[in-house]
Amino acid sequence: MTHTIKLEANSRPEVMERILRVVRHRGFNLEEVLMKQCQTTNSTKITLKVSGERPISNLENQLNKLYDVAQLELHQSTATTGSAVAMNA
Amino acid sequence: MTGAELVLKVLQQHGIKHIFGYPGGAIMPIYDALYDSEVEHFLCRHEQGAAFSAIGYARSTGKVGVCMATSGPGATNLVTGLADAMMDSVPVVAITGQVFSNLIGTDAFQEMDVLGMSLSITKQSFLVQSLDELADVLHQAFEVAQSGRPGPVLVDIPKDIQVGSVDFEPYPIAEKQTPDFSAESLKLAKDLIASAQKPLFYVGGGVGLADAIDEMQDLLEATQIPAISTLKALGTVPADYPYNLGLVGMHGNQAANHAVQECDLLICTGARFDDRVTGKLDTFAPNAKVIHLDIDPAEISKLRHADVSILADFKKLLPALALETQIQPWQQQAVELRSEYAWRYDFPGETIYAPKLLNLLSQKLPHDHAVSCDVGQHQMWVAQHMLFSSPRNHLSSGGAGTMGFGLPAAIGVQVARPDCTSVVVSGDGSFMMNVQELGTIRRFKLPVKIVLLDNQRLGMVKQWQELFFEERYSETNLSDNPDFVTLAKAFDIPALTINQADQIEQGLDQLINSDGPFLLHVQIDEKENVWPLVPPGKANHDMLEGEKV
Predict the structure, then answer these.
(1) Helices (H) and strands (E) in chain B, counts
(2) pLDDT tens-digit profile of B121-171?
(3) Which residue of A has its CA nearest to B301?
(4) ipTM passes above 0.85
(5) Which of B116, B144, B297 sits opposite A17 (nearest CB)?
(6) φ, ψ for residue B21 (rounded to 5)?
(7) Cα–Cα distance between B125 and B119 in angstroms, integer?
(8) Are B92 and B67 in contact (CB under 8 A)?
(9) Contact residues on chain A for B120, CB-CB shorter than 8 A
(10) How far apart are CA B209 and CA B231, in angstroms?
């Protein structure tokens, strides 16, 4: 399964590492990533496309648990890997 | 004031009176500020000892434990302790000194990416970026460590920020926010409980962490539902509750494991379906619907599907669950299981049977006591054979299973609760892993009581080698251990060796009645194993039962 997750996080220098670490450790592969700093809100907008066989709800919950993650939305899940997903952060 | 002075001010604002640590180059400004501070610092003899003492302090009181170390190796030595706190949800704040900001990333002396290495072993971590954010980051650290599911937080503070000048502004400490749970979920849960024929409470460490032990006990009293406990929950269900079936899992009581396999409703209360509890997961509680109660959304349906789940603060939730049940046949079955599988100590023999010694110790200890243990066979014997009146009195490294935990944890307990009899039960393998903390006991004249069960083996690994590795005893023979009595005496700690059953009584009395610290060195038979045991990959009802040697 491939999933697209959009999230908004506090703009700390390590926030991307923190998120990617959780993705890897909880059993998902990173397929695509897009990240953008928003100066006005001091936040970071991130779109991740990940693939994995474990339930995506587990990853959503683990990412949501991160203190720096303010919002998270599961955008799309598809059964096939490699399909093009529009990534707009 | 300086940033360093501010750090101590903020600690005091959060009610911190005691911290554990070890100085070094990059944290010297904070140690300099400590010199004039009311915060009392306990010098440990290794940063790992400081981290475990902070954990012992936190687990035995419910307050935040604080530890401190310098940059580089000081911080890396905290890592195991923080990982332990992460696995067992312990509120700890770790403060580490970091090199000057302009030296970060230059491979300077004792410069390491502590923030980077903290990511997987803390609930949250910060590298302080500027003096302006220092106070705010520290307040956040205390808030995050205690809120929701507790956990460790690390704050890495560069030296330039410690020596910089800053104004101190009082900060209102926020009241704890607790989430409201839905009335609908509550009704679903109560309906399930009311209609179940064989409901079972599966009580975890979350109840104690939520400070909801009284509420849990009231709920048991109201519902009269049988209960099983995880390692971290021991002490939550009253020992004399007629339907207390004890420890569940790999080395649990057969009564608990048979009950869980037979129940039709499992009410998971602050537990997390750990593999040491469930055995082969898809055979665990095969006939049961599941109600999962927790504060952490990530635990719901992580390993076992929950038919009903409620996210809540247990102090509010548990009283709302009270109802009367009509489950006499199941209660009768629980009573029978409890009686059938009650632990036995009436074995003949002249050597010391460790479970019997621990059970007797449990009976002899004064009411205000706490037992910290290490990891291995002795840890399981403590869990099986000692009785606790609160999970705050049983400190065992659960999720992480960290050898070397016991001695420094007991030091933390003794500092937090000076009137409490703080006992360590250790094994000869684990004890040597943080043995340097005997120096801390000596320095602060802490009356910690040490029971060292010595089978001259890495017993639990040896047991597995015997059962599952064709008796190929690879690297588990410790018959070249030091003379533990002489070792204790080098730290001014009186010690006694016993090895015969008729010496137990006197040995325990000497341990408990000594004014200061004491080490009771107990020589036991290396062939004695921990029973029962659910073999790896088996269901909980497939327990192996062995003989006392």
Answers:
(1) 22, 18
(2) 999 999 999 999 999 999 999 999 999 999 999 999 999 999 999 988 777
(3) A58
(4) yes
(5) B116
(6) -175, -170
(7) 7
(8) yes
(9) 21, 25
(10) 14
